[in-house]
Design goal:
The structure holds 2 protein chains of 2 kinds. By secondary structure, chain A is of the alpha/beta class. Chain A is built from 9 helices and 27 strands.
Chain lengths: ~400, ~60
C-alpha cells in the first residue's frame, strides 16, 4: 500500500454491504492510517436483505443478522448521519454537528425508500426498511393472527418477497403495482412472469397496472382506492415501492451526480479528478466495460465486490478498473432463484436445462443478438459456479 | 480463524461455493459440505466476504 501515511484518515460513509466490505479489506490489509465509519443506522450494521425475509418471517433475529458485519474495534464509529460534504476543505459534516476531516473518502451511503406523495407512514401503514419497522409490523401481525389481511403496495423485488414471506406465515395478501411487469426491471421479464405464476399458485392476489389513488386508515384497518375505482380493505398496508440513492447529503457539494441521483465515478470507482474519493454500492454509477455503458446496480453481492475494489483503489497507486459479472438471488414461495450475467429488456429467454434436475430445477439463458449473456437458475444452486464461469465469458466488447 | 456453518440456517444458495471453492462444495444431494474448517491467513478476507454475502447469514467465522 503506497502513499498511505500513518497520520492520514480514511472515512467510510455507510455501513451496508459496500462499506462493511471495504472496512474489512482495509483492516485485513492493515491500512496504516485511521479508519472512520459514519452511519446513522441506530441498530449498527446488519444484513439488510434479511429485512423482507428472515427478519419479517421471524426465522432469524437481528443479532444473527449482525454477526458477519461486526465492525472491527480499530474503526472509529460515528453514529450520526452524513449531511454535507466540503470538497475543498475535505470534510464530511454530520448531523450531530461534527466536521470530520478526511484524506480519503468512500461514499457508500446506499439507498433510501421512495415514498408515495400524500401518504403518511404510521399507524397501520408501514414499511420494512428497518428492524424497528419490521418489529412494529410483526407485533400487529401476531395480534391479528391467522388470515390477517395485508395490502402490499409495490410488487418489485421487496414487495414480492414481502408478499411471499407473509403468505408463508398464513396472511391473506393483496399486492398492487402500477406496472404490469413489476419485476422486469430488477429481475428480468422471465422472473417477472414466473413470480406472478407463483403468487397465483399460493393464493396471493396481485393487482397489476393499478395505481393506489388514495390510502387511508381508521381503527379497523386501511382502505385503498385504486385508479379503476376498486376499493381494497386490509388490516395493515406495507409500502415497498422501491428505493433511490441516498445522496441528498451530496447535493450542492459539487460532486458529480447523475439524474437518477447516483455518484458519477470512473472505471476505477474513483471520482474523476479526485483520486481521494470513491463510491461503491447502490450509489455508484460507473462505466462498465463488459456492458459497454454506464451502470448502477442495487444488489448486495455487487455492492460487496465494489466495496473491496474501491478500498483497494483508494489506497493504492495502481487503481484497477472495476467490472463484474453481476449476480443476485431471490427467494419466493420457497424457490431459490439466482441470476448471473447480463440481460436486456428485450432479451429472449431460452431454456437450456440439461437433462432432469432435482427439485424441478431449470436453467434459462438470456439471449441477446443470438448470444447467451446471462443465466437464470431456478432451484439449481449446484450449477451456480459453472454458469458464473460461463457468464463471465461474455462481454459487449467481445460480442 | 475457523469456519462453522449453521446447517439449520443454510439453504444451499451456494454463493460461498463460487467464492471459496477450496472451502465449500455442494454434494450430489445439493447439501453444503465444508471442506476445510481452518482458514489460511491469506484466505481470511475472502471467507469474510463469504460470510457477509451469505443469503442466510449461516457462515460463522471464529478467531482461533
Amino acid at each position: 500500500m503506497s502513499g498511505a501515511g500513518g497520520h492520514e484518515r480514511l472515512v467510510v460513509v455507510g455501513a451496508g454491504a459496500a462499506g462493511s466490505r471495504a472496512l474489512r479489506a482495509l483492516v485485513t490489509q492493515k491500512y496504516p492510517g485511521e479508519l472512520h465509519l459514519v452511519s446513522a443506522e441506530q441498530d449498527g450494521p446488519y444484513y439488510r436483505p434479511g429485512l423482507s425475509k428472515q427478519l419479517l418471517s421471524g426465522s432469524q433475529d437481528l443479532a444473527q443478522l449482525r454477526r458477519a458485519l461486526a465492525v472491527d474495534p480499530v474503526v472509529h464509529r460515528h453514529d450520526s448521519a452524513a449531511v454535507g460534504l466540503d470538497l475543498e476543505a475535505r470534510l464530511v459534516r454530520l448531523e450531530d454537528g461534527t466536521e470530520l476531516a478526511f484524506d480519503r473518502l468512500l461514499i457508500a451511503s446506499g439507498s433510501v425508500p421512495r415514498t408515495l406523495p400524500g401518504i403518511q407512514v404510521g399507524g397501520r401503514i408501514g414499511s420494512v426498511d428497518g428492524p424497528a419497522k419490521v418489529a412494529r409490523f410483526r407485533d400487529w401481525l401476531a395480534g391479528a393472527g391467522e388470515g390477517a389481511e395485508v395490502l402490499v403496495v409495490g410488487a418489485g423485488l421487496i414487495g414480492s418477497e414481502v408478499a411471499s414471506t407473509l403468505n408463508a406465515a398464513g396472511a391473506d395478501v393483496v399486492v398492487v403495482d402500477p406496472s404490469t411487469t413489476p419485476l422486469a426491471r430488477a429481475l428480468g421479464s422471465y422472473v417477472d412472469t414466473l413470480s406472478r405464476d407463483w403468487h397465483a399458485e399460493h393464493g396471493v392476489r396481485v393487482e397489476l397496472g393499478r395505481l393506489v389513488a388514495s390510502l387511508s386508515q381508521d381503527e379497523d384497518g386501511v382502505e385503498a382506492i385504486l385508479d379503476d375505482g376498486q376499493v381494497l380493505r386490509a388490516g395493515f398496508a406495507v409500502l415497498a415501492i422501491g428505493v433511490r440513492p441516498a445522496t441528498d447529503w451530496l447535493l450542492g457539494s459539487g460532486l458529480p451526480l447523475t439524474a437518477a441521483g447516483g455518484v458519477e465515478v470512473d472505471e476505477t470507482l474513483l471520482v474523476g479528478g479526485r483520486p481521494d474519493i470513491a463510491a461503491a454500492g447502490d450509489v455508484a454509477d460507473w462505466p462498465s466495460a463488459r456492458l459497454g455503458r454506464r451502470a448502477r446496480v442495487e444488489h448486495w453481492a455487487v455492492a460487496i465486490e465494489q466495496g473491496a475494489a474501491a478500498a483497494y483503489n483508494l489506497t493504492h497507486d495502481d487503481p484497477q478498473p472495476f467490472d463484474t459479472v453481476p449476480m443476485f438471488w431471490t427467494e419466493q414461495h420457497g424457490r431459490l432463484v439466482h441470476f448471473v450475467g447480463h440481460r436486456e429488456p428485450d432479451s429472449d429467454w431460452v431454456d437450456v436445462t440439461e437433462g432432469e434436475l432435482p427439485r424441478e430445477g431449470r436453467v434459462v439463458a438470456a439471449v441477446s443478438d443470438g448470444v447467451e449473456t446471462g443465466y437464470l437458475l431456478i432451484q439449481a444452486p449446484q450449477l451456480l459456479r459453472r454458469y458464473q464461469q460461463q457468464a463471465a465469458q461474455w462481454s459487449r466488447v467481445l460480442s | 480463524m475457523d469456519i462453522t456453518v449453521d446447517m439449520n440456517l443454510c439453504q444451499s444458495f451456494a454463493i460461498c461455493v463460487g467464492l471459496a471453492p477450496d472451502y465449500f462444495e455442494l454434494d450430489e444431494n445439493g447439501d453444503l459440505v465444508v471442506l476445510r474448517k481452518s482458514v489460511d491467513p491469506e484466505d481470511e478476507d475472502t471467507l469474510g466476504e463469504a460470510a457477509l454475502i451469505c443469503p442466510k447469514q449461516a457462515i460463522l467465522l471464529e478467531e482461533t
